[in-house]
Amino acid sequence: MNLSDLSRRRFLNLLGGLGTALLLHPSRLPAIGKAAITRPIPASGERLPVIGMGTSRTHDVGPEPEVRARLLKVLQVFFDEGGRLIDTSPMYGNAEAVLGELLRTVPYDRQQLFAATKVWTWGKQEGIEQMRKSMNLVGVERFDLIQIHNLRDWQIHLETLQEWKAAGKVRYLGITTSHGRNHDELELAMETAPFDFVQFSYNIGYRAAEQRLLPLARERGIAVLANRPFQRGDLFRMVRGKPLPEWAADFDCASWAQFFLKFVVSHPAVTCAIPATSKAEHMADNMGAGFGRLPDSALRQRMVRTIETL
């Protein structure tokens, strides 16, 4: 059963309990009147909020209406708090289909959505067919961004994406990896190909990208999407039971999630972090990291020392 099969009353009942979740953490919501922090896409100057939304794991779910309703509330909070960039992939199981269903249900301005997916297969024709399928599943006529996932057959797919960009079928081209072992090849791709975006893992506990990838992105004018900003939950396990430092208030930080996200997006080369969550209250918390002040260089160093000494 999908959301369209639910009666209006049942659907509202499913969302009712979730709607109050945001009231439990008022300090995590951005202050009224504050503008979201944005960064420009170097290739165009178009600005994006620094907090986006990932769909890995969280959106690879079954048909249970209760699960879909929770994800719908997450998406609604994302849009209500000014979110734009949503990242998905054929690699994420049902994520593209689930996201498409939610987008057909939630009220939002299509101009607000910055839809990003990936191509993750071998061969030119297979890539074309996969990208067309992604369009149908997500329900968009054109993706804002298509990325070559984990560098798979990237030279072949790059040719197709350049053709699609010239024809107006996609706005931006990107390439990704989530594995440090692929950084050498990713660096080569960034140096030799006209990518608009690059995506890789970066967080306060895994800073390998600071050595070469982040400086190279700035040098080449490539927008950066930072995945795994919470290191798949490892960072939260590190700070469990630990109080948030009082000096976190110096950069308008009200939670550990905001602490981790503000560290990521305060790097000048990072365009947008893409945390994933299936809980509306966590989405509200995440979005709060995109408002207020960001830590400067000295505070970033202090944040690292704090985590390293836990």
Brief sketch in words of this structure:
Helices cover 39% and strands 14% of the residues.
Descriptive overview:
The strands form 2 sheets. An 8-stranded parallel beta sheet has the order 3-4-5-6-7-8-9-10. The protein is an alpha/beta fold. The longest helix is centred in the first third of the chain and has 16 residues. The N terminus is likely disordered. Helix content is 39%, strand content 14%. Helix 6 packs parallel to helix 7. The chain is built from 11 helices and 10 strands. It has a single domain, classed as TIM Barrel (Alpha-Beta Barrel), CATH 3.20.20.100. Strand 5, helix 4 and strand 6 form a beta-alpha-beta unit.
CATH homologous superfamily descriptor: NADP-dependent oxidoreductase domain
Radius of gyration: 19 Å
Total number of helices: 11
Looking at the overall shape, the CATH architecture is Alpha-Beta Barrel
Topology readout:
Blueprint: H1 8-19, E1 38-40, E2 47-49, E3 53-54, H2 65-80, E4 85-87, H3 95-105, E5 114-119, H4 124-138, E6 143-148, H5 154-166, E7 170-176, H6 183-192, E8 197-201, H7 213-220, E9 223-227, H8 234-239, H9 256-265, E10 272-273, H10 280-288, H11 297-308
Parallel strand pairs: 3-4, 4-5, 5-6, 6-7, 7-8, 8-9, 9-10
Antiparallel strand pairs: 1-2
Helix pairs in contact: 1-2, 2-3, 2-10, 3-4, 6-7
